[in-house]
Amino acid sequence: MAEKERSVTELKDELSKLQAEIGRLEKNGSADKKIVVKTLFRWQAFSRPYTKRSPKWFIYTFLLVTTIILVLLFIREFFIIIPVLALAFVAYILATIPPEITENEITTQGINSSKLSYIWEELDDFWFTEKNGFIILHVDTYLNWPRRLIILINKDDREKIKNLLVRYLPYRELPKTNWLDTAAERLSQGFHKLTS
Question: The whole model's pTM is what?
Answer without folding.
Answer: 0.69
